[in-house]
Amino acid sequence: MKKIEHIGIAVANLDEANKTYTSLMGAPPYKTEEVTSEGVITSFFACGESKIELLQATTKESAIAKFIEKRGEGIHHIAYGVTDINGELKRLKNEGFKILNETPKKGADNKWVAFLHPKSANGVLIELCQDRKIPLK
């Protein structure tokens, strides 16, 4: 694991949350992107070497919609940057972590992503992120 890549925050209204975080961060989001496979639209804010990702559901079936319905808005996941996502998935599985998707998939901000179940990480959903510029091994 190289660093905390970003912190994902589930929001009900992305436009309103963008206003709040623009005031908080002192700058607007550098990117807004829809990830149709996940049923979300995202905004990214720079925060030093890390980022803040705001996520709004675009479908009632998305994980973000279900999260907000159950828990309300708030921190959804912590993402860690890695250089070999498949190697990390194998290592973490061997360490006993429950892997939610064994094959990395395309995520927002030009990343390969995979998730660890919160039950195996003290209640925190963990996302692994690898730049798509780096070929999968």
Automatic annotation (TrEMBL):
<comment type="similarity">
    <text>Belongs to the methylmalonyl-CoA epimerase family.</text>
</comment>
<dbReference type="GO" id="GO:0004493">
    <property type="term" value="F:methylmalonyl-CoA epimerase activity"/>
</dbReference>
<feature type="domain" description="VOC">
    <location>
        <begin position="3"/>
        <end position="131"/>
    </location>
</feature>
<dbReference type="InterPro" id="IPR051785">
    <property type="entry name" value="MMCE/EMCE_epimerase"/>
</dbReference>
<dbReference type="InterPro" id="IPR037523">
    <property type="entry name" value="VOC_core"/>
</dbReference>
<protein>
    <submittedName>
        <fullName>Methylmalonyl-CoA epimerase</fullName>
    </submittedName>
</protein>
<dbReference type="InterPro" id="IPR017515">
    <property type="entry name" value="MeMalonyl-CoA_epimerase"/>
</dbReference>
<dbReference type="GO" id="GO:0046491">
    <property type="term" value="P:L-methylmalonyl-CoA metabolic process"/>
</dbReference>
<keyword id="KW-0479">Metal-binding</keyword>
<dbReference type="GO" id="GO:0046872">
    <property type="term" value="F:metal ion binding"/>
</dbReference>
<dbReference type="Pfam" id="PF13669">
    <property type="entry name" value="Glyoxalase_4"/>
</dbReference>
<dbReference type="InterPro" id="IPR029068">
    <property type="entry name" value="Glyas_Bleomycin-R_OHBP_Dase"/>
</dbReference>
